Amino acid sequence: MKVMGTGYKLKSMIIVGVLSVILAGCSGSSQTSAAQTEKTTVLTGKEINLTTSVSNQEIAPGKTLPVWTFNNSVPGPQIRVKQGETVKVNLKNQLPEPVTIHWHGVPVPNAMDGIPGVTQNAVQPGQSFTYEFKADVPGTYWYHSHQDSVNQLDRGLYGSFIVEPKEGTGVDRDYTLVLDEWVSSGEMSGKSMSSDNMSGMDHGTMNMGEDMSMYDLYTINGKSGSLVEQLPVTQGDKVRIRLINAGYLSHQIHLHGHEFKVIATDGQPINNPGILKDNVVSIAPGERYDIEFTANNPGRWLIEDHGDKAAVAGMKATIAYEGAPAGSDKANESEKLTVVDISRYGQAGKANFTLDQKYTLQYTMNLNTSMKNGEMVYTINGKTFPETEPIKVKKGDTIKVRLVNNSKTEDHPMHLHGHFFQMLSKNGKPLEGSPIIKDTLNLRPGEEYVVAFEANNEGNWMFHCHDLHHASAGMVTELKYTDYKTGFVADTNAGNKPE
Fold it and tell me: Other CB atoms closer than 10 Å to residue 245's CB: what's the count?
């Protein structure tokens, strides 16, 4: 059995064009460097080295943009480890600004969570930091900078992190597709700005809340359109595709030509998932969905984003059977298809929590949008971070959280650090299918969810919207263990920007 990671067949990212690493002025025309990104690799083993640096990448045919990278690639290397292994990652920062790494969804010790000013000081230019933790829970995760993250993720500072179960993945092909959006013009985007320029032009303060149309290039693994690498399969293969949304918009992913199952969400398995065909899987910022299918329909089939924006046309990859002729499938990205309702999917099974059990603490998070001093802010219970009220717990507590999206037009994908939570109800109705365990949950306007979790990982943890424009404009709170004593001391000169 041959199992392949995302790096196995990814196109080499060697770019012919020459573009400045850091553009002069707002849109810039100076060309002083020819640094180009390289192929995304797969890293394994007990010690991993990651170096951040500035480079350039051809995002779409003929469109090269300046990027910030891990190991000179966007996405950064896929880190692939076995369940139970201790992972040691040495980060070296060669960027002009401080940086950290957050292990999104991975239940790491608090000191390894990568939150500047909360768990560590941001790693300064030229400095290093070592992350070390045990990978106990198998699944699909990702890593990204959590320093000024609305801008640093926008520039490309992310990669996938896969924890394989001890018994193996059980598939013949294992692909990872990291979804993202970019600004082709370079204007109003962290990708096009030098560190000097960015200091005066921050996504979080630009009142962009109602308009995300500036993101006009959608990518899979850092490439758009014809640059997206094909996914080779052989008839009879069992294929897993891990979908990770590293961007700020939800994407509706449609697999053509095959029945499939959604086998995991945010890395956590779904009990007895049902067979789907011509449904779309809606993936919000920060979320992950693993789908699985048998390659039993020879041809060349698309897996693509659906929607009404022109940019969706660039977010598609071809599943290519060996020897299949070109052009045997057609795109239909504008067609409206039924979205998989994860609250009614799979089969009921053993669950950790129920709606009516007794909880140590119950908490309501009213999420909203408002104007303050002429700027858009995003609030939790009417307040913006750091004025939001933290959720205070002790180890062993059980917590039920009611999440309500009162924003009229905007989604809020809420991400809890250091913990998994169980979804209990959606819009007042208990879940009907499999127990659903997640770390990131999207609330559309008017939606209400109830979730529950156990306080089983001591520390000070972020709970925030993963549309990072919203986080940087206030939609952040903290989960604080009152009996936790941290040895961390924040350096006021580190330039820590945790949102």
Answer: 27
Dist CA 455 CA 458 (whole Å): 7
Pairing of strands 63-70, 47-60: antiparallel
Q: Which two tokens stand for residue 132?
A: 């070390």
Record the tokens describing residue 338, joined without a space: 């039924």
Q: Can you tell me whether residue 385 is helix, strand or coil?
A: coil
Torsion of CA 214, 78, 271, 316, to 10 degrees: 40
Structure token digits, residue 100: 């950290």
Rounded to whole angstroms, how far apart are CA atoms 384 and 378? 7
Interval 419-440 mean pLDDT: 97
195: pLDDT strictly greater than 70: no
Please provide the DSSP assignment of 447-490 as one string: -EEEEEEE--S-SEEEEEESSHHHHHTT-EEEEEETT-------
Whether the CB-CB separation of 434 and 271 falls below 8 Å is answered with yes
Question: Is pLDDT of 244 > 90?
Answer: yes
Cα angle vertex 365, ends 245, 445, to 5°? 55
CA distances for 222 relative to 69, 159, 355, angstroms: 11, 10, 41
CB 320 within 8 A of CB 447: no
Q: Identify each DSSP E strand in 322-435 by its residue range.
A: 361-372, 375-380, 391-393, 398-405, 412-416, 421-426, 429-430
Which of 295, 166, 198 is CA-nearest to residue 239?
Answer: 295
Are 120 and 144 within 8 A, CB to CB?
Answer: no
Task: For 220, list phi and psi in degrees, rounded to 5.
Answer: -120, 120
383 Cβ neighbours under 8 A, 6+ residues apart: 389, 474
* Residue 323, token pair as written in the block: 């020897």
> For 268-311, what is the HEC assignment?
EECCCCCCECCCEEEECCCCEEEEEEECCCCCEEEEEEECCCHH
Question: Which burial class, exposed, middle or buried, applies to 447 when counting CB atoms under 10 A from its CB (0-12, 13-18, 19+)?
Answer: middle
Encoded amino acid at 100, one letter: T
CB 79 within 8 A of CB 87: yes
| pLDDT (tens digit per residue) in 82-109 | 999 999 999 999 999 999 999 999 999 9
pLDDT at residue 33 above 70?
no
Strands 102-104 and 476-481: unpaired
Looking up tokens 């292994």 gives 85
- Angle (nearest 5°) at CA 209 between 204 and 211: 125
Q: Any idea which residue has 């060697």 for tokens?
A: 14
